[in-house]
Structures
1.
Amino acid sequence: MKKMHSQDKHKEDICPVAAGYLLICPVRRLIHNPESILRPYIREGMTVLDIGPAMGYFTIPMAKMVGETGIVIAVDIQEEMLKKLQKRALHAGVAERIVLIQADTKSLGLNKYKGMVDFALAFAVVHEVPDADTLFREVFISLKDGGKVLFVEPKGHVSRKKFDESIVSAEKAGFRQEGYPTVFLSHSVLLVKACKNA
């Protein structure tokens, strides 16, 4: 496993660790199959970002998809979630492809990845952050020109109005909407960082 970067020791109970086990339940694959959802966006050798990965439901499949030459950056505010993810990644044989970053309430801690990320996933996490403007701004800076973000929120927990407000935050950061993938029981949008010369 590559080095875990700890931004600070502040803990905030957003999604309790106990609930993390529900998120990795195998039955979930029936409605949110990681490979089906992510296959259009991830190729071998990519650098990809998983924001708020919990125990790695999407992170580990992402690591398999990027292959031995790719990297997955997993950013979570909870140290315990990252430790659980690390154990699962070791068991899956993909730990060397995953960089763990412990964020804090003010920053995702992506400074060293400026302009390096090909694709980012924000699945059921933006509604939990205190400042969506800052989150999307930091993700925008981390992406390469033409890089994409799949932004998904659960319909049962996030209203359409709240989701649209988050899209406004993304557009303020510089993203434009490119498409609207179908994700079961979810609001979803594909965002792109437009090339400077486009």
2.
Amino acid sequence: MDLTQGTTEEKNKRAKKMMLWFAIISLIMSFAAWTSAFIVSSSRPDWLKDFQLPSAFIISTVIIILSSISFILAKRALKVNKTKATTLWLLTTLVLGIIFIYNQFDGFQQIINLGYNFTGPTSNVTMSYIYLIAMVHILHVVMGLICLLVVIYNHFKQKYTTTNMLGFELASTFWHFIDILWIYLFLFLYFVR
């Protein structure tokens, strides 16, 4: 298929989707670098081998999976023109995203309660990596929430239809990406010592 063919609107849609995928690939490379550095650093003598991830991280993993499911249900409702159901599922996704971030900060508090801060004399390189990886992911969840707020606003303005869902689809793709990314990060931090 020739990417230069089609109407201006079709080209614009393809360009926006391609830009999102370039951003996602860039993020994958960044997190791959941080997790690689985590593996390399694990040979240090001061590396914690027996740490436990905070229970709040487990809860937040379940919550972000539920948020992806609610976003899928919102998209399905929109496709069959069920406005109220779309609104309900979008708002559910937003609330779950906020609860995810709350649980992440609760996880940081659990780490602090164990005696490990991000920096300073009570820090540890292992926990500093966990802070860094989780905090950068939280920033991307915040970006996802901003995108979601734009989608909710546009939904209330009735911008989306069964045939015009570009902004909705872009936000959905990004949201599912940060969901999958967290699952990867959680499993990585859980199993890699």
3.
Amino acid sequence: MQEYELAGIETIARGVAVIGGEVLLCRAKGGKTSYLPGGHIEFGETAREALVREIREELGVESETGRFLGAVENSFMQHGKPHAEINLVFELKFADKPEAKAKEDWIEFEWYRLEDLEKANVLPAAFNVLASDPDAFFAP
């Protein structure tokens, strides 16, 4: 068995925003995979605070967190090193449906129809359950 040096374990706050049968997704510009919006939790902030901050920074709108929907563990190879993340998932709420226009130049957002979710290549794959159950809970 080949051994690798672990690149790290990240803790990420992610949000599920479903409005009008569409879920908000993001991806790196030119990327082939999508993921739920959110980002890294910084030292001293809660997961909820991190999610609201990341949405403000990346999408340029205010949001609120709703119910805690669970945790999704994920491991993968990135730049030749094993990588791991723990995603803390919350409902993500907006006063109005925001335009899917990123405020940062490396990322893009898109509202995806739930029935077309498999075409979005969402990672971690556990999030694909949203296509059939937009109120899903996630348990490790």
4.
Amino acid sequence: MSSQRQLFLDHLAQTSPTPLLLEMMYAEGIYMRDANGKEYMDLISGIGVSTVGHRHPKVVEAIKYQVDQYLHLMVYGEFVQSPQVKLAEALCKTLPDDLNSVYLLNSGSEVIEGAMKLAKRYTGRSEFVACMNSYHGSSHGALSLSDSDEFKQNYRPLLPGVSHVRFGCIDDLDLITENTAAFVAETVQGEAGVKVGSELYWKAVREKCNKTGTLLILDEIQCGFGRTGKLWAFEHYGIAPDILACAKGMGGGMPIGCFIANRRVMQVFTHNPMLGHISTFGGHPVSSAASLAALQVIREENLLSSVAEKEMLFQSLLKHKAIRALRSKGLIMAIEFDSYNIRKQIIDKVIELGIVADWFLFNDRSMRIAPPLIITKEEIKIACKKILQAIDSVVD
């Protein structure tokens, strides 16, 4: 009989020639356990998903309760379903008054596709401005926003009318004009290796969008839901988007995403044509229940209050001659080394030592650190010790 690993290779579509092939059997909190009983500390939260940890008891309880009520009933937007309604209300209460209408979907890419359609439909414009080294998903519209030829070249033609500017560069904002439907940007660039714009930059962005009638779409799929120490990363900068995109950590481990806008803007989907955007499984009741529970955990356990302190602890402990930079915004961090080769060896060693880390699509010299917000100071010390041990084993 073939092993699980061989069956994985034989029958599951592969996304790289060298998958990690870790066979995990159990996860709880910040830990995962493989088929041999080896324990791993998850320092990437399943790429930004497990914000409140794996299988948080309150999330699991909410899932079990909802499973006993009903699963899928009807396509999104037709039936009044309590989990969707409660989640949408709770999300809107965390946001400025103008962000009061939630469209629930299943994933980050779907959210970006919907947000792009909304911007085009509402403004009557077809052009977009996005940032270099940005990542918004791999579906056709979302991929069109990327400037990476490596990822795009074999899938052209993609969406026309997309221009790219340097992230954080105020001078480049002149590319936003009266023909631009939306400026689309990650509030904190993730796959670029954790790049942060200044408050001055974001206020200039907001002013330019206001002046040209351009909608501002902020992608907080990776940096939202508490990752930066505020529930929404844009709160750090004194501005607000016209459309907010969220997914990943929103679900407490379940698949869900949403884009949020003003009710007046969102109403354009209801006519000319009716059903201007539709989703079969958007806002699945079990995922919605899990998401609401995750939001409540963040609030009730006061997880945001300790993010800055934990960030500083990582910063203080991760000191090594081989580390060229350590960029962070809350508990999303990039440890930069001299080369891809050095970084890869270090990550391989870190995994051997029982730490799951990762890299970035557009910064292959840097190692990703984005642990669940529930990580303790003692666990941070253990993790940093193992990371430094891995670096020492690779760098003379």
